[in-house]
Amino acid sequence: MPGRPSAPRSSASRRAVLRGAAVTPLAGLGLTACSAPGGVTADATPTAPVDLGAESEVAQGSATLYREHNVVVSRDRAGTLKAYSTICTHAGCPINKLQGTTLICPCHGSEFDAVTGKVVRAPATEPLNPLPVKVADGRIVAGHGA
Predict the structure, then answer these.
(1) CA–CA separation, 113 vs 118, rounded Å?
(2) Which pTM was predicted?
(3) Could you read off the pLDDT of 7-31 as tens digits, one per residue?
């Protein structure tokens, strides 16, 4: 409007407000990205012994992923069975991919050695949680109380 003095604009504070409004939803997404889909936590591993299948399913120097129980069972070259929870120690995501003896987390790409449970690729820094495992009547049984 002519003749009317305009109020000085505070473009810096306006920019800060707009930037804050744009970043706030992204911060929430960042928090969501680091949580497990479906709220799965380490409690999703067997708390009681679970029959996983025939002992012959895990050959020496290999590993078998039991997705439905969140367990991987491996047999080292000496023939010793080991079992680990396949809940990623980085963000609690269930690991659903096994390549050879390497477990790959779908959430952030952490990789674990299925024979030792050790981290082989970050962002995870903690090894997988070991589970008791035994063979009973030719069947692999894993979980607490096995």
Answers:
(1) 5
(2) 0.70
(3) 555 445 554 444 444 443 434 333 3
DSSP state, 47? Answer: S
Distance (Å, whole) CA 101 – CA 38? 26
Higher pLDDT residue, 43 or 96?
96
- CA atoms of 86 and 44, how far apart (whole Å): 9
Token pair, residue 17, equals 């407000």
What CA–CA distance (Å, rounded) separates 91 from 93?
Answer: 6
127 by Cβ neighbours in 10 Å (0-12 / 13-18 / 19+) ranks as middle
Torsion of CA 72, 79, 60, 100, to 10 degrees: 40
